[in-house]
Structures are given as structure tokens and as C-alpha cells.
Design brief:
single chain; about 100 residues; alpha+beta; three-stranded mixed β-sheet
């Protein structure tokens, strides 16, 4: 789901990213090179990686995002970021706020 790099503080940045955008990734890595906290990349579930199982986990038939599109990939990655926040008990996260995943 994610790749965690450097840092040992309580502050974590989650970067939601499409793997094929390598120039964008290099730019983000330059921007975050001096960040003292953790950086976690949410990389899985690009458009070409979406499966029926993933789509059915998060969306219902008839939903605008019930398909294999870039928008669906983006939404899934944001939902997985929320899951990451709760499962890793990042500062400010409570499972009662985000619900059960």
C-alpha cells in the first residue's frame, strides 16, 4: 500500500501519487528532502491496477466512481490514506471519526 521513508518524529506527510508520473515524484522528493518527519507514499492502485475487488470494496454500482478511471484511482488512494492514518494512529486520528475500515 505504501512506502515509508526516513524520519523518526511524530509528524508524517502522506504523498498520494501515481507511479507513472516520475518527473512529479522527483519534484516532490526534492521538496521533501529536508522534511524532518516521516514521508509515506501512497502508490498502489493506479488506474491500470484497479481490480473489481478494489472497486467493490469502496464503491457501489451506479456510483460515478464505480469504474476503472483516474478519478477512481485518486479516490481509492485518498481512502487508503485515511485507512493509513487510522491504522497507524497518526496524531489527531481516531477510528470513531473515520469509521471502521
Amino acid at each position: 500500500m505504501s512506502e515509508k521513508v526516513k524520519g523518526d518524529t511524530m509528524t508524517t506527510v502522506l504523498v498520494i501519487h501515481a507511479k507513472h508520473l516520475t518527473d512529479r515524484l522527483a519534484h516532490m522528493e526534492r521538496q521533501l528532502q529536508d522534511w524532518p518527519g516521516d514521508v509515506t507514499y501512497i502508490l498502489d492502485d493506479d488506474k491500470n491496477e484497479l481490480t473489481d475487488e478494489i472497486i467493490n470494496k469502496y464503491f457501489v454500482p451506479g456510483c460515478e466512481l464505480y469504474n476503472k478511471s483516474g478519478a477512481t484511482s485518486c479516490a481509492v488512494k485518498h481512502l487508503k490514506a485515511c485507512e493509513y492514518i487510522v491504522s497507524h494512529q497518526l496524531e489527531g486520528a481516531t477510528s470513531s471519526f473515520y469509521g471502521e475500515f
